[in-house]
């Protein structure tokens, strides 16, 4: 799996949530909440666990990724309920939990990429 692609897909989640707000489209909160439903989640549970479980960065990424999906599902539920102001606030750059978790997932992916590069370059 290409970790950069996984990172892009997680950044696209925000766009998907914003588009759903604009279009008044309902979202599948259960699927969004399932951290194993995305490519990164599957990789973390399979190949990532095999190659990276010894790293603290892996364990932190697994947890941040799980929390990210739960927060994205919470925002999706706000959208489904028509609470667009609250959803927009929840997606705000900076202090929002969504933004913090998104950044933590991105940092975790970068750290794992570095560790894997070191591991397989020796």
From TrEMBL:
Q: Which InterPro entries match?
A: Chemoreceptor_zinc-bind_dom
Q: Which positions fall inside the Chemoreceptor zinc-binding domain?
A: 10-75
Out of the domains of life, which is the source? Answer: Bacteria
Q: What's the short name of a Pfam family annotated to this entry?
A: CZB
| Protein known as | Chemoreceptor zinc-binding domain-containing protein
Please name the source species: Aquitalea magnusonii
